[in-house]
Design a protein that fits this description.
Residues 5-112 form the FAD-binding domain. By secondary structure, the chain is of the alpha/beta class. It has eleven helices and 16 strands. It has an eight-stranded mixed sheet with strand order 3-5-4-12-13-14-11-15. The structure holds flavin-adenine dinucleotide.
Length: 355
C-alpha cells in the first residue's frame, strides 16, 4: 500500500493528513519544527474558516478565540465601520496550528520531524533521510523548496511584519470585537485581539516601503503612526523594544494551475490570496480537504489542482483588486468613504473574496 506523505504541518497539511488518516490512507506528516511556533499571520479567522474548523472538530470559541463581528477601516483621518456578514474570530497561530497538528496525529497520521531540502518525482530529500511515496502533498506554505519553487516576477513584492502588544484593558476596549484594517501607501496593518487579550498587529507592505524607512521595522511603524492617527493610538501601547517578526517576499496572487510534477499543492502552495482579505487559512483548509478527498477517490493530482485553481480564482482576483486599491492613498480614501456611504458594499466585497 502507498502511504501518502504530507510535507508541512501548518493548517493545510494538518487538515489533509487528518482527513487522509480518517479515510484509512495511513499518511506520514512531516514538519521541520518539533515545537510549534506562532507563525506570522493576521490571526483573523473568517466566518468561513471558523465553519470549516468546526466541521473538523475544532471549535475556535472552545480555544478561547475572540469573537469578531465588525470590520473597521482607517485611511489617514478617515474611518468607517461595517458589520461582518457573520462572526469571525481572533486566534493566535500557535493555538490553531497546535490544535490541528494534534488532531491529525490523534486521528492516525504519523508525525515525523525532518527539514526537506528538495522535492522531485516521488522523493523528498530531508536532512534526516530520503522519503519516498507516489503521493506527495506539498504544504510548506510561504516557504519555497528546491524542485518546486514558485516563480517570482522580481517586482516590488510584499513583506509581512508582526508585533504583539500585550493585553491591556484600554487597548481591549479600543479594538473590541473588530478586525481593523489601517490602510496606508504601499500596505496595510491588520489589528485584532487574540485569545490572551494581546493585540496582534500584522502588516503587509511593499519591500520599497520598508526600504524608505531605512530597512528598520520600528522606523517603519513610527513613520506609519506619524501619518495615521488611528494606528498611532494603538501603537502608543507598544513598548519600543517589542520584537518585530518579519517574513519576506510573499507571492500574492500566485495560483498553481497544474500539478506539473505529480505533487498535490495545498494552502499557500496552491494559491496565495492577498492577506488583506483574511482568507488564507480558509484556502489552506479547503485545499487540504479537497486534495485528501481527491486522493481517497482515486483521482490524480492534476484533476485536483485544476479544479482547485478554478475555485480559488475569483477570491484571489477580488482580493488582489482590493489590495491594489487599498495601497494607494486615493484608493484607500475611496474604500473608506464608500464603506461609510453605501451600507452593504463592504459586506459584498468580503463575501466575494471568500473561497
Ligand atoms: C502578513 C500576513 C498576514 C496574514 N493574515 C491572515 C489572516 O489574518 N487570516 C488568514 O486567514 N490568513 C492570513 N494570512 C495567510 C495565512 O497565513 C496563510 O495562508 C496560511 O498560513 C497558509 O497555511 P499553510 O498550511 O499553507 O502554510 P503555513 O502556515 O506556512 O505552514 C507551513 C508548514 O510547513 C513547514 N515547513 C516549511 N518548510 C518546510 C520544510 N522545508 N520541511 C519541512 N517542513 C517545512 C512549516 O514549519 C509550517 O509548519 C496572512 C499571511 C501573511 C503573509
Amino acid at each position: 500500500m502507498i502511504r501518502p506523505i504530507v510535507l508541512g504541518a501548518g493548517p493545510a497539511g494538518s487538515v489533509a493528513a487528518l482527513l487522509l488518516a480518517e479515510g484509512g490512507a495511513e499518511p506520514i506528516l512531516i514538519d521541520r519544527e518539533p515545537d510549534i511556533g506562532d507563525a506570522i499571520c493576521g490571526g483573523f479567522l473568517s466566518w468561513r474558516t471558523a465553519k470549516a474548523l468546526r466541521e473538523l472538530g475544532c471549535d475556535p470559541a472552545a480555544l478561547g478565540a475572540r469573537r469578531v463581528t465588525r470590520l473597521r477601516l482607517y485611511a489617514g483621518e478617515r474611518e468607517a465601520e461595517a458589520a461582518l456578514p457573520e462572526a469571525g474570530y481572533g486566534l493566535s497561530r500557535k493555538a490553531l496550528d497546535s490544535t490541528l497538528r494534534h488532531l491529525a496525529v490523534e486521528r492516525g497520521a504519523q508525525l515525523e520531524i525532518d527539514r526537506a531540502r528538495s522535492v522531485a518525482s516521488g522523493r523528498i530529500e530531508g536532512e534526516r533521510r530520503t522519503w519516498e511515496s507516489a503521493a506527495i502533498f506539498l504544504a510548506i506554505g510561504k516557504h519555497d523548496i528546491r524542485g518546486e519553487a514558485r516563480p517570482r516576477d522580481g517586482a516590488d513584492l510584499a513583506l509581512g511584519l508582526r508585533v504583539r502588544i500585550p493585553a491591556s484593558d484600554k487597548l481591549n476596549r479600543m479594538i473590541g470585537a473588530a478586525i481593523e484594517l489601517h490602510l496606508f501607501r504601499g500596505g496595510y496593518a491588520g489589528v485584532v485581539l487574540q485569545e490572551d487579550g494581546s493585540a496582534n498587529i500584522c502588516l503587509a507592505v511593499r519591500k520599497s516601503v520598508l526600504a524608505d524607512a531605512g530597512g528598520d521595522p520600528w522606523e517603519l511603524l513610527k513613520a506609519i503612526a506619524r501619518k495615521n492617527a488611528g494606528f498611532a493610538r494603538r501603537m502608543a501601547y507598544a513598548e519600543a523594544e517589542l520584537p518585530v517578526d518579519t517574513i519576506g517576499a510573499v507571492p500574492y496572487g500566485w495560483i498553481a494551475h497544474e500539478a506539473d510534477s505529480g505533487v498535490y499543492r495545498l494552502g499557500d502552495q496552491a494559491a496565495v490570496i492577498p492577506s488583506l482579505a483574511g482568507e488564507g487559512m480558509a484556502i489552506a483548509l479547503a485545499s487540504g480537504r479537497a486534495a485528501a478527498q481527491s486522493y481517497l477517490e482515486g483521482e490524480g493530482p492534476s484533476i485536483y489542482q485544476r479544479r482547485f485553481a478554478q475555485r480559488a480564482a475569483r477570491p484571489v482576483r477580488v482580493a488582489e483588486t482590493l489590495w491594489h486599491l487599498a495601497e494607494t492613498s486615493r484608493g484607500a480614501a475611496v474604500m473608506t468613504v464608500a464603506a461609510r456611504l453605501i451600507p452593504g458594499l463592504a459586506g459584498m466585497a468580503m463575501r466575494m473574496s471568500r473561497i
